[in-house]
Specification:
190 residues, mainly beta, single chain, four-stranded antiparallel beta sheet, globular
């Protein structure tokens, strides 16, 4: 409770279950999504009168298209502007997964090294993912069934958290080991 400065609710998890860095609200503010890290799930919670009620999680793929085992390890998450798709930065798999929330289908595609934070363009046709293991941000095309890298933008070392301006025209990236903020124009991708 931000007015009182007190904890209103706690949802505990026992090891090895847990959460990682990603949180995202649905556009109507009624559903909260949280990345489940090593559990390879996205937790879902209904929000009613300030109280969270956990729903069944979204399970991420554990094998890739060739049938090989993968540990996606979901980190940052974001919703497209229309709230229909959930974007997941798969930190351990160097990948991004796009989940259609209506059908539950998930499509995974390559990204940069150790993707960490992810945001969506204003029209939902592109995503921007920080690559914590390098000095880049990947721009992904979301218009096909699988996300595909269309451009890689060099920023400072170890880009981590990223946030867009309210109009989603600018992307602000915290470059952890460069102690700087990079600003990317999301229209020109520069």
């Amino acid at each position: 409770d931000t007015a009182k400065g007190t904890v209103a609710q706690t949802l505990p998890y026992s090891a090895p279950n847990g959460l990682f860095v990603g949180l995202a609200f649905s556009p109507d503010g009624q559903m909260l999504y949280a990345s489940g890290g090593g559990g390879n799930i996205i937790r879902r919670y209904n929000l009613d009168a300030g109280v969270l009620a956990e729903q069944s999680p979204i399970t991420l793929p554990t094998v890739n298209a060739t049938g090989a085992q993968v540990n996606l390890f979901p980190a940052g998450i974001a919703l497209t502007s229309d709230g229909r798709r959930l974007l997941v930065a798969d930190e351990q798999a160097d990948a991004v997964t796009v989940i259609d929330l209506a059908s539950g289908t998930a499509h995974t595609g390559a990204a940069g090294h150790h993707p960490y934070a992810i945001t969506s363009s204003a029209d939902g046709h592109a995503a921007f993912v920080t690559n914590l293991g390098t000095d880049t941000v990947s721009v992904l095309d979301l218009t096909g069934p699988e996300p595909t890298v269309q451009k890689t933008i060099t920023v400072g070392t170890h880009p981590n958290k990223a946030i867009t301006s309210p109009d989603r025209h600018d992307l602000y990236v915290a470059d952890g080991d460069s102690d700087q903020v990079s600003i990317i124009d999301t229209v020109s991708n520069a």
